[in-house]
Design a protein that fits this description.
By secondary structure, this protein is an alpha/beta fold. Helices cover about 45% and strands about 15% of the residues.
Length: about 400
């Protein structure tokens, strides 16, 4: 359902623009094509200089949270109190009561109230609805901002906010929200199991999507040696040590290949040392974070895409990584871990190959098939693209979210 009249919706985000959260950017772009105006409210600016092309216009209108103890922010709190006295006292009362019941949440509650008050003043009456991405701090801010301004709010949950305990008071947030979206069926079932009384009827499955005009098969290049590409943050749940171990096994079998890893993160130095220790320094290249156009160029050059996801020590794990959607949309034979929601996209030997999480030998075997079995390569390339087109079109999926916004915005 398109919405005429350019309804304004505030989006509360941890960071914007974010090089790793392209799915949010695509959602925002698709909603604007349907007549909405999205105003990002961000807790922080990105540290690096990598910005995806589509984010620049949004970045110019983004409202960033101030430093918590700045004089400017303190003055704005007084303005928020004067502008929204009833709403501000209600939000303050909730923050105090929640902190008394759950002292470990005190810092989050009052930090979120401080930011919510600031955003309330900066926004004025410009928006009619507030939406947050991730059920942790951004949703706490959206919750309090809605209380201050009298607006409705909703939020989307993804992975760390489902599989770990980062998201405080999730049942209360769901109960107060107009609706909640989740990007995988695996995550939806998990939330229903934990929060059935409040989630029933409010929880909507909306997959992330791609602009399929940007991700098209270009005909896989016959690179020598063939390239295995992996894209993701260099963190525990991405399983890069297992990918390097699998590469070492392939090397011992005489396979010819290169591995290109795109992404940055706290494990970078450890992974570089590990690659050297496995005698892979001439085969593995770490490129750091790259803008989307450069990542698309690498997709076009890759013969195989690989993602060795595992469950991290704190329980965090991937939901359905968007890089897998991108790889399949580009027609790249893809190997990924049989974990979490990944099988919702990758059906073994049909749309890709599934490997046992944390098993480098099994991963090596699946990579070898993806590199050399032309029958499998052809089949998964075709069927993988077809599945993305059918279920993961950004415009179609944003239409479902736009319908939810339209319903709560009805006068």
């Amino acid at each position: 359902m398109d919405r005429a009249g350019s309804e304004r919706v505030a989006y509360v985000l941890a960071e914007f623009p974010s090089v790793t959260e392209t799915f949010i950017l695509r959602e925002m772009l698709a909603l604007e094509r349907r007549g909405f105006v999205i105003i990002p409210l961000a807790l922080r600016k990105p540290v690096g200089e990598v910005i995806h092309e589509g984010a620049r216009a949004f970045a110019q209108r983004t409202i960033y949270a101030p430093r918590p103890l700045s004089v400017r922010a303190a003055i704005v709190q007084l303005l928020a109190l004067l502008q929204y006295p009833g709403g501000y006292f209600s939000a303050l009362r909730f923050a105090v009561m929640r902190s008394l019941r759950q002292p470990q949440e005190t810092r989050e509650m009052f930090g979120s109230l401080w930011r919510a008050g600031y955003f309330a003043v900066r926004l004025g009456r410009r928006v009619r609805h507030i939406h947050a991405h991730f059920g942790n701090v951004p949703t706490t801010i959206a919750w309090l901002l809605a209380e201050i301004t009298g607006r409705g709010y909703s939020f989307s949950v993804h992975a760390c906010d489902i599989f770990t305990y980062q998201a405080t008071a999730l049942s209360l947030k769901m109960a107060e929200a107009e609706f909640v979206t989740v990007c995988t069926e695996y995550g939806r079932r998990r939330l229903l199991k934990r929060h059935r009384l409040v989630a029933e009827g409010k929880l909507h499955l909306i997959y992330h999507g791609l602009d399929l005009s940007e991700f098209r098969p270009v005909g896989l290049l016959a690179n020598k040696p063939p390239i295995i590409l992996s894209v993701g943050r260099l963190v525990e749940k991405k399983g890069y040590p297992y990918l390097l171990q699998a590469a070492s096994i392939l090397q011992s079998r005489g396979a010819d290949f290169r591995i290109i890893i795109v992404g940055e993160g706290p494990l970078h130095e450890d992974l570089v040392r590990m690659a050297a220790g496995l005698q892979l320094q001439d085969r593995v290249e770490f490129l750091g974070a790259l803008p989307q156009r450069e990542v698309r160029r690498l997709y076009a050059e890759a013969q195989v895409f690989a993602l060795a996801s595992v469950v991290a020590a704190d329980g965090d794990r991937d939901g359905l990584p968007n890089v897998l959607l991108e790889a399949l949309a580009m027609g790249i034979p893809t190997v990924a871990s049989n974990i979490s929601a990944i099988p919702e996209l990758i059906e073994h030997q049909r749309t890709g190959l599934l490997a046992t999480p944390g098993d480098p030998r099994d991963l090596a075997e699946k990579l070898e098939i993806a590199l050399y079995d032309e029958e499998v390569r052809s089949r998964v390339s075709m069927l993988g693209r077809q599945k993305v087109v059918k279920y993961f079109d950004a415009n179609r999926n944003a239409a479902a979210l736009a319908t939810l916004f339209a319903q709560v915005l009805e006068p």
